[in-house]
Amino acid sequence: MVTEIPRTTTWRAWLGLAVLTLPLLMSATDMTVLFLAQPSIAADLAPSSTQLLWILHVASFLQVGTVLTMGWLGSRIGYRRLLVIGVSVYGTASLVAALAWDPVMLIATRALMGVAAASLLPSATSLLRVMFPDPRRFSVAIAVIMSSFSAGMALGPPLGGVLLEYFWWGAVFLINVPFAVVLLLGLPLLPRVGGDTTGAVGRPDLFGALLSVAAVVTVIFGFQEIADHRASASEAPLWPYALSIAVGVALGTAFVRRQLRVPEPLLDLRLFAAPAFTVSLAAMLLMLIGAGGVEMLLSQYLQSVQGLSPGQAGLLLIAPALGSIIGGMLPTLLNRWMRPGSVMGCALLSAGAGAAAMVLALRGGDTVHVIVCAVVVALALGPMFTLGYNLVIASAPVRGTGSAAAMGDVAGGLGTALGLALLGSLAAVVYRQRLADGASADVPPEALGRAGESIGGATAVADSLTGTAAAELLEAARSAFSAAVQAGYGVTALILLPLGVVVLWTLRHVRLDELDSDA
User: Fold this and answer.
1) Contact criterion met (CB below 8 Å) for 110 and 58
2) Which class in CATH covers the domain with range 1-202?
3) Has domain 271-519 been given CATH number 1.20.1250.20?
4) What are 209-232's pLDDT values in tens digits?
5) Residue 432 in contact with residue 87, Cβ under 8 Å?
């Protein structure tokens, strides 16, 4: 096993940390910038609705589905080598995606980008574990990495808006190429971690890798499709997507049973014996289920109810994004006086209180109050995400860092998918019910049906009506969607508040400097 372990943290390690922020900044920016490019892609390539859905989601499906395999692969070929391969493929695929001339080509390159992105987080965290052997400095490094991810998501909308203002849609993919080049130039700053040089490594568990990919992809696909159909009030049957979830659960069960038998498992299930690992992983999953979909609802609220343009809404949403970045860095200070369980529990309670305050702010309809509450929620969730991920990594032995990081990535992807499905479906149901109850009798039934598909559909229908019916329909739709967003934040509060109490209790004795990283 080739591993360069420095005795102390040097200037080279801090420069290496700066280099390792680049791949996460790159992938995070790519997540949010594509939503702005969607109309331009649709106009240029003319994809079908199904093809457009795959363009948007195929990368995230495959990233979460293959991350366990990437965590295992890094321990075999070396994490620096895996990072080089992943970044090189990601940059090359981005270049090809920018030049795509039909939807199928773009879907294929996006799929390749998703597989390459799966290698980034396990590689970066495994390298950081060796570069920063001191637990407190490792906590700082994790906070910087997680904050770079938040920064990338915050930069996506304004950066994409500028690029799309002056260039074609392919420019949103070309911005990944400079990131990849700079990281490859900074490669000498990174240590060699992992990689077997003795020839003792057994054959790879290809069947286990296929099981893990199929299980995660089918579950996430099912939940996202259910959320999309509920949000659009589609009359298409939902049973195929429910079946997809059931098949994914069955495949996941088979994967876990296989990991208990094979000599070289992709996932070391012994990690779950550590309470800090299990509780932190579960807390991140539940946190994202509760809060993973509210940003989507808030963005729609600002545009459809408050009447802001996409550019204005994007600028306002920078405030909670910056709150998330600041919150992610707070544990580096709070860890000096508080145990991680106390910080995480208080963060969840604060975020739950902020979500409850958002329900009241939405009732008043004041944009300033709404953004302030959004900042509070984002600021409070920052420490939870950073410390939760830190505990997941620190609870694992050094050789298991890649596997632990991969599990964190799976929890993040699955939690976001479940959150979108839960809150998206809830908001759609509340919106349609409130609209039906509040609409004037002057609105034709067929117009009311089309308006119930989405708040954007209600605006389009109102434009086609005359007299007072148009104004009444628009007012009813805005009121109904406000109630839907309130319901979403209410569920967020109901999940985060008790979760905060549980985390406070179960992790009350855990200390970062007492976790055995050499187990």
Assistant:
1) yes
2) mainly alpha
3) yes
4) 788 778 877 887 787 677 666 555
5) no
